[in-house]
Amino acid sequence: MELDEFKGSLKNTDACQNCGACMSFCKWDAFEREHPGESGTPVICRECMVCFRICPRPQSRYAQNEEALFGASRTSELLGYYREALAVKAASPVEGIQDGGATTALLKFMLREGIIEAALLTARDGAWKPRPFVATTEAGVEEAAGSKYTSAPALSTLGPALERFHRLAFVGVPCQIAALRNLQQRNDAAYPADRVIIALGLFCAESFTYGQVGSHGVAQFVEAELGMRLPRVTRFDIKKNNLMVFEGERVEARPLAEIKHLSWPICHSCPDFTAEVSDLSIGAVGSKADENTVLVRSAVGQEVLQRAIQAGVLEARPIQNLGLVERLAQNKHDRRNGLSPEAVQFLTKRTIRGNFKKAGGA
After folding, report:
1. How far apart (Å, rounded) are the C-alpha atoms in residues 151 and 162?
2. Considering Cα of 346, then 351, then 357, then 362, what sign does the dihedral take?
3. How far apart are CA 324 and CA 230, in angstroms?
4. N or C: which end of the chain has fewer CB within 10 A?
5. What gap in Å lies between CA 41 and CA 31, rounded to an integer?
6. CA–CA separation, 41 vs 206, rounded Å?
7. Ramachandran assignment for 260, one of left (phi > 0), alpha (psi -120 to 50 degrees), beta (any other)
């Protein structure tokens, strides 16, 4: 895909990866929240430059972050560093979970045991529009259960959460995990991101735009093209390269190749499928239908996971073959490598949020 085509596809979406990290600390955004109807100035934007310094788009600090986090070089060029691979599922699954429910069960366990005070998650409204959400209770964790497959600025709640809590968990897709790690590696007292003591990364091939009914995005696709009502949809899933939408007994599936126009164009520049700098990477491929594949990366991730297993909250078994996970990771590398040099240059420049807003994009 060439540069002009990429620029054209950005018409109805954000040019950044929408991780939300800069939104947590951007003074321009803070000004506009406190002064409705007024706009901040470029001077406000350029004062701190934290957005530039933590932006995950360049994908250039993975090796540095891996060494700092894990004290080791990567195990696999496709999957990054990991200690072990496990198939994990909740011992007592709850309604609304995806596949094995490992993420939901683990977060509830950490809250119950006081390991964390809150979790930064992505919930949704009645029409499946995703929204960043801070869960402080097990019921709150259950509210955010299940995959949405549409992008939300999950780290936009980080700044306020750091002011309230000292022990946080974060759940996000690869670019969001990368942004968090970039912020943590700054060791800046103004942004105490080390209070996020565990980061759970979700496998991600690409994220879709939500849009609105009548415009580009999943909302339009579901209601206009599939003829299904979003408030009645009970689940989304991706199986065998198909996006599946469930409405009661009715199931509609479309090949991902047919709906690639709904994905965020920026996703095409991302080579990270398994959230390589998370403490635990969690996905649905590579294990049974009622299990999650978990790549254990850090000492913290390993300790928390083992505690949950020993407490009977999770069940786990070793995975010997990660062939399918590796193939999907290779697909992301191939997609990135297939971009023209101009497209790569355009898509991997750091986003300065204020400049994007000045151009009328936010």
Report:
1. 22
2. positive
3. 31
4. N
5. 9
6. 33
7. alpha
Question: Token pair of 320, please?
Answer: 């010997």
Sign of dihedral through CA atoms 27, 168, 269, 262? negative
Angstrom distance (rounded) from CA 314 to CA 93: 10
Q: In angstroms, rounded to a whole number, what is the distance separating the alpha carbons of residues 356 and 14?
A: 9
In angstroms, rounded to a whole number, what is the distance separating the alpha carbons of residues 337 and 333?
6
What global pTM score does this model have?
0.87
C-alpha 139/C-alpha 199 separation (Å) is: 20
For 15, counting Cβ atoms within 10 Å of its Cβ (0-12 exposed, 13-18 middle, 19+ buried), the class is buried
Tokens of 286: 């590579």
SS3 (DSSP) at 170:
strand
- Contact (CB, 8 A) for 20 and 152: yes
pLDDT tens string, the chain, 362 residues long: the values are 343 444 444 333 345 677 888 888 877 766 766 676 776 666 666 567 777 778 887 656 777 888 889 988 888 899 999 999 999 999 988 776 778 899 999 999 999 999 999 999 999 998 899 999 999 999 999 998 888 888 888 999 999 999 999 999 999 999 999 999 999 998 889 899 999 999 999 999 888 888 866 667 899 899 989 999 999 999 898 888 889 999 988 999 999 888 888 888 778 888 999 999 999 999 989 999 899 999 999 999 999 999 999 999 999 999 989 999 999 999 999 988 888 887 777 676 655 554 444 444 44
The two tokens of residue 349 are 């420049």
Largest CA distance in the chain: 57
Q: Which two tokens stand for residue 294?
A: 């978990």
Please, which residues have CB within 8 angstroms of residue 345's CB and are 6 or more apart in sequence? none
Closest by alpha carbon to 97, among 315, 278, 291?
291
62: helix, strand or coil: helix
Phi and psi for 90 in degrees, rounded to 5?
A: -70, 135
First to last CA, the chain: 25
